[in-house]
Write a structure and sequence with these properties.
Structural class: mainly beta
Strand content: over 45%
Mean pLDDT: 97
Shape: globular
Strand order of the largest sheet: 2-3-4-8
Helix content: under 10%
Low-confidence stretches: none
Number of strands: 10
Distance between the termini: 9 Å
Order of helices and strands: EEEEHEEEEEE
Length: about 100
């Protein structure tokens, strides 16, 4: 059964930005505001376990882990270049009463 959790206020995440939040089980996720849409992925790079929020950069609809320059699609989680091959887990995001709710 899918559950949802309120994370941060919409106003806290400007277009082109990334912030982190936690699911109730302690899993850290990365939240993105890209071209007016809101997205969430796992926060950990699938290559070497770096935090995307702490070590990553956002450009357009991609997030890059600066440890080894792995790029991922923020929208789909797809790994876009080597050495990364495993996609990021993504989570649906809904805007409810001004807050980003993430389904998990």
């Amino acid at each position: 059964m899918t559950q949802s959790v309120a994370t941060i206020a919409e106003s806290e995440l400007l277009d082109g930005e990334m912030k982190s939040a936690f699911l109730p089980d302690g899993t850290r996720i990365a939240l993105f505001h890209i071209n007016g849409g809101f997205y969430a992925t796992q926060d950990t790079c699938t290559h070497e376990n770096a935090s995307l929020n702490d070590e990553g950069t956002v450009e357009g609809d991609r997030v890059t882990c600066t440890w080894h320059y792995c790029e991922f699609s923020i929208v789909t989680g797809e790994a876009l270049n080597s050495p990364c091959s495993e996609p990021l887990k993504t989570f649906p995001v809904k805007l409810v009463d001004g807050y980003l709710h993430v389904e998990y």
